[in-house]
Structure formats: structure tokens, C-alpha cells
């Protein structure tokens, strides 16, 4: 494949999406898409198209490097536990830590009366999480659905803010609580990825933009759960 247009054509075929349907989705004419096939995707729209198909912009532009970003599409390898031995986090010795659910409103956290979450102390110990660093919140938006639905209960470790590719974090951005997969690129560019990438494209912030927009990492999301409100149908 010689240019990004060839790779775009292949991606459309992988998704069983016709060029005309794609043109409607991107709000451009079919002729625009034909031009992209021939001349390549305009640089101004390269990141947008890469995010849409969950591929690396570098791969889409030049064909070099990996195709899919590890943080979103590939599960990280984990060590295998012998079948006869239960995973350590499932061995509960009965000790529980109780945490009150918090609401983030007007730039501050306030407790939600009569709403608590209990977590096994053994699990916290295994993850190296101090109980005073645990913050429990409700998922504030739909951008991580269906993996983390809106209003799912989250447990956040405020003691872990280092960016590990593909892990899920709570961030504060201009006084707003947000939950995203994070990745850190060249020159300190922080990318915020949503699971629903069609409706919530990836956002990128340089170090200067993060300072100017008061964007900082609150902590690592290490637990979440959601009880369905009703049966299907």
C-alpha cells in the first residue's frame, strides 16, 4: 500500500463500510473520499480518521510501526495462575474496608449519604493501595460505555498517577471529572481515549495545554461495578 488512501480503503473494507456511507458519516462528498483514496488523507484529518478506526496515525500515514494502539485494543499479558490455585484477590479473609461514595460538584468532593462501598483489605494489600488513598465515585459520563456504563461505581487510587499505557484513570479537567484510558506520547503529549471512540474521539494535550487548562490526573481506576436496572427487553 503506497499511501494513506490505500490503507483507508482497506479499513473501510474491514468494517464493511462503503465509501459513500463513509462520506455521509464524515459529512463530505463521495468525491472527497475518492480524492483521499488517490492522493492520501489530508494531514488535517489524519488523527481524526485514525481515532475513528482505532489505528495509529503513523501507521495510517506511512504504513510504518504497529497498526493498532495497545492501550485500547490489546489486553495486556498477565501471569497465569495454576488451575488448582485461586487468584490471590479472590481469597477473602473477611477483613473489609468501607468507603463512602463521593460526589464531585463545584470543584469539590462531598460524601453521598448512606452510600458506601466495601472492598476486601486483602485486595487492597495485594495492589499496594493505602486505604486513605481510595476515592469512590460514580462514572460521570457515557464515553466508556459499554465497558463502564454511566453511574457505575468506581474505586480510584489517588496514590497512583503515573501514566501506564492503556490503564484507566480519573482526571480533573477545568473543574470537570472525567474517566479515560490514558497514553503518553512524544514530548509529553497526554492522550485521553474513550471506549466509545465513534462518539468521543481521542483528545490530545501538550504539557503547556495541560497547565493552561488545569488538567491533572486524579488517580488510577482499579475497580468498578454496575448493577443493571432491569432485565433485557
Distance between the termini: 46 Å
Runs in which pLDDT lies below 50 for 5 or more consecutive residues are: 71-90
Q: Look at the structure and give the CATH class of the largest domain.
A: Mainly Beta
Overall radius of gyration: 21 Å
Q: Biggest sheet: strands, sense, closure?
A: 7 strands, antiparallel
- Strand order of the biggest β-sheet: 3-4-9-5-6-7-8
Q: What is the beta-strand fraction?
A: 25-35%
Tally the beta strands.
9
CATH topology heading of the largest domain: Umud Fragment, subunit A
- Going by helix content, strand content and strand pairing, the class is alpha+beta
Number of domains: 2
Mean pLDDT: 85
N to C succession of SSEs:
HHHHHHEEHEEEEEEHE
Per DSSP, the total helix count is 8
**CATH arch. level architecture of the largest domain:** Ribbon
Shape: elongated
Q: What proportion of the residues is helical, as a percent range?
A: 25-40%
Which superfamily, in CATH terms, is the homologous superfamily of the largest domain? Umud Fragment, subunit A
Describe this structure in words.
The protein has 233 residues and is an alpha+beta fold. It folds into two domains: 4-68, Orthogonal Bundle (434 Repressor (Amino-terminal Domain)); 88-225, Ribbon (Umud Fragment, subunit A). It is built from eight helices and nine strands. Strands 3-4-9-5-6-7-8 form a seven-stranded antiparallel beta sheet. Strands 1-2 form a two-stranded antiparallel sheet. A hairpin with a 2-residue loop joins β1 and β2 (108-120). The N and C termini lie far apart (46 Å).
